Amino acid sequence: QLKNRLRRFVDRDGPLAPGFLAIGDAAYHSNPIYGRGVTSALVQAALLDEALGRHPRDPVAVARHLDRRSEQELRPFWDAAVAGDRRARGERRTFALANPGAWLVGMAEQAFGWFVDRGIVPAMRVDPVVFRGLMRVFNMLAPPEQLFRDPELLARTLPVLARVLQGDEPPQAFAHVPRATALARLAD
Fold first, then answer.
1. Beta strand pairing call for 28-29 and 14-15
2. Is 65 exposed, middle or buried (0-12, 13-18, 19+ CB in 10 A)?
3. Is residue 16 a contact partner of residue 40, using CB atoms and an 8 Å limit?
4. Helix/strand/coil for 15
5. What gap in Å lies between CA 50 and CA 5, rounded to an integer?
6. Apex CA 105: angle with CA 163 and CA 63, to 5°?
7. Is this model's pTM higher than 0.70 or not?
8. DSSP annotation of 89
9. Tell me: the pLDDT tens digits for 16-67?
10. Is 29 in a helix, a strand, or coil?
């Protein structure tokens, strides 16, 4: 029952508690399956150092700086984790056409997820360039949108996507083990 949690302690009026600075899972907590907790904390520690260096005697400016830079550096990964968890649970978000901005964002999120699940993930099983590109994003060395910005990665993914759509998906590296089977093996 792990939940993705985003806790921001700065709003448009400034920090909610000047001098209180949350980093790591206290601020951006995502499903541990993505393995980004320590990396996120280290990124925020570096951002906190940056903020303190630029605003050594101004706790309000430190908090604003840390919040702004954390949103730039970590939010794309947190959003990707939330979207990935939604897809894994089979959730489909609906957006009213009355709010075109939210509708477009929702459609883009679904299209991105579809392409990752049906194109990039199967392609990484057979193409080392795609594997490295996905691992760079997974390990927070490149932002999630890089998966769509890299022409070589896209060119290598599209033929595999065509195979998947024809029912010829590359085999999984490991066979799926149902939960009941795993629990039975653990009980032995």
1. unpaired
2. buried
3. no
4. strand
5. 24
6. 120
7. yes
8. T
9. 998 899 999 999 999 888 888 899 999 999 999 999 999 999 999 999 999 9
10. strand
